[in-house]
Amino acid sequence: MFVHYAQLGLLSLRRNPLLTALMIMSIAFGVAASMVTYAVFRAVSGDPIPQKSAHLFAPQVDNWGPQYNRKGEPASAMTYTDAMALMHAHKAKRQTVLFQVLMSVMPTQGSGLPFKSAGYATYGDFFSMFDVPFQYGQGWNAQDDDNRAAVAVISRDLNQKLFGGANSVGREIELEEQTYRIVGVTEHWDPKPRFFDMFNGNAYTDASEVYIPFTHAIDLKMDTGGNNSCSGVGNRGVGWDGWIRGECVWISPWVELDSKADADEYLQFLHAYAQEQQRAGRFSWAPNVRLRDVNAWLEFQHAVPPESRLSLTVALGFFVICLVNTIGLLLAKFMRRAPEIGIRRALGASRADIYRQFLAEAGMVGLAGGVLGLFLTGLGMAGAGMVFEPQIARLAHLDMSLVALTLLVAIGATVLAAFYPTWRAAQVQPAWQLKSN
Amino acid sequence: MLKMTHLSKVYRTEVVETYALRDFNIDVKEGEFVAVTGPSGSGKTTFLTIAGLLETFTGGEYHLDGVEVSHLNDNARSKIRNEKIGFIFQAFNLIPDLNVFDNVEVPLRYRGMKSAERKKRIMESLERVGLASRAKHYPAELSGGQQQRVAIARALAGSPRLLLADEPTGNLDTQMARSVLELLEEIHREGATIVMVTHDPELAARAQRNVHVIDGQVVDLAEDPRFHAHVAQVAEATHGR
């Protein structure tokens, strides 16, 4: 019977073509606006590493004190002193610290010019902590960290650019006039937002292309290619050695902990460390530390741009207005057919049958609106850059899940909107309709 | 087959109560062909819509095929309409967007009948009314008489035990009216119970029994002065022309 009702619904689309077109457009525009903004919102608000987000933590230690910190919160990055203390304590299952590096890369073939590549100086645990997938080889090990080895991991894209995509493990690469031995080539890996480097505002920038050992970068006195925040603190240090011993923050630390008990224990460790710094006279305030998992960290860092949330709210409001409009149009369409309803009731249709028929018909209108909405969503994706930052707009994709969601929302919302008009249709008194004929 | 006892139907507004039927009594036996006559506004059509379970009543009792229907819910009333009653209306009441075949199919769909069985019944009904060749035509492509024949085919397709007809020839010319009436008589001869509301005395005369309704009540014509007044009124009007 549902197929029959769907056929009647299709037949009805051809009846009152103007009214039908208005309804379909109303739904299509409403659903398209919602889906475009939702696609952007989904891209920026998703969990970038769902399989591990509850086990990865960003530790924070307040080295600026109540006078310079922001609303009582410790800085979003660490000093070299604190970062090294955490690494040497080795209290977590895995731990790493990282800072952004911008390095010139010397092409390996031909006479190409050097080009800049962005990446990170980090520890070997980085790759296993963040489940970095490898095309060739693997990350370096703890021994390489300790030995301050000149090794590198490069991205698939960089490998393509330098070696034509061949297995380059064991080959050499020249970065900032230093030679590194390649130990691994990652698959395309670009978690969004890039939770581990929120401090540098890199949540939505291009994927990083190169990774080198933190210890080696320090040996080379490599400057950070990212932010260096000193707030109002006095001890900024002079020269390289002074800087890394100063109170400016520029290093992002991460630890991996298996359980809540481990996290509690690590928080105690941070507290004890801050207490020790207080006793040593470095901090003149009570310990102020934090330990946030990935999702709490993204929330704290306001990873979802405010315009994304706002535009989604506005688009949903627009969709509601479109649906209210659709309710009116459906009501007009259904009540025009009061005589038909009277006939059907006389011939044995129950109110439930009328509900089924008219809701199925609304479903067909919703389906048509959804199909047109898909087309408009595609157009909207292309034009999302006019509303959002280009780096955010390009994250929105019309994938299969969004196609299904668009159709589902269009059909579901139209059927929901049709309940009142259908209820009115089911209340038609057949006797009155047949008498008035 | 159809028995109404002390049945009443009242339309209420804030200021006035209007009795469409008052102390209405009728008993139609199975297989009867009854004509219900009466002047305009006498309550004939209200009787027919209540008889067809298209409208509820205010008081009294109504037994249809032995079942007291006043307490039935919408589903049960719809099922009885679908399985036991066939309607023929003055205005044909075909669905304009559906072709003849699909119009006749409507009540069978609500019965949940299988496709093959539906098709068989539809074609049999259409053949019976002489319109099998017009199965793919739309109502607008047919004459009034043909449309009424389709309506009769639709009523017959479900093999109803009771056929309710409201001025079935009211919108037809004499020739078409005669052929529709002959069709109804044929259906009656095959055993169907028919209750027909009509203004037309010639039509009423073809029924087995006439029931006259005046002011919402069934009256005995011989004893009711209102009938004689009505006859005089009609005669005067006829002479006046």
Descriptive notes:
With 437 residues, chain A is of the alpha+beta class. Chain A has 2 domains: 2-46 and 305-436, no CATH class; 63-256, no CATH class. Helices cover 51% and strands 14% of the residues of chain A. Chain B is α/β, with parallel strands linked by helices. Chain B has one domain (28-46, 73-239): P-loop containing nucleotide triphosphate hydrolases (Rossmann fold), CATH 3.40.50.300. Chain B has 8 helices and 10 strands. In chain B, a hairpin with a 4-residue loop joins strand 1 and strand 2 (17-28). The longest helix of chain B has 16 residues, at 174-189. The mean pLDDT of chain B is 88. The chains are: A alpha+beta (437), B alpha/beta (241). Chain A: Residues 314-430 form the ABC3 transporter permease C-terminal domain. Chain A: It comes from Dyella tabacisoli. Chain A: The chain crosses the membrane at residues 21-41, 310-332, 365-388, 400-420. Chain A: It is a multi-pass membrane protein.
What's this entry about, in short?
Chain A has 437 residues and is of the alpha+beta class. Chain A has helices at residues 2-14, 17-45, 65-68, 80-89, 125-129, 142-146, 156-163, 214-219, 239-245, 260-279, 294-300, 306-335, 338-346, 351-382, 390-393, 400-417, 419-426, 430-436, and strands spanning 56-61, 94-106, 115-122, 134-137, 151-155, 172-175, 178-186, 210-213, 252-256, 289-293. In chain B, the strands form 2 sheets. Chain B has a 6-stranded mixed beta sheet with strand order 6-7-8-3-9-10, sandwiched between helices.
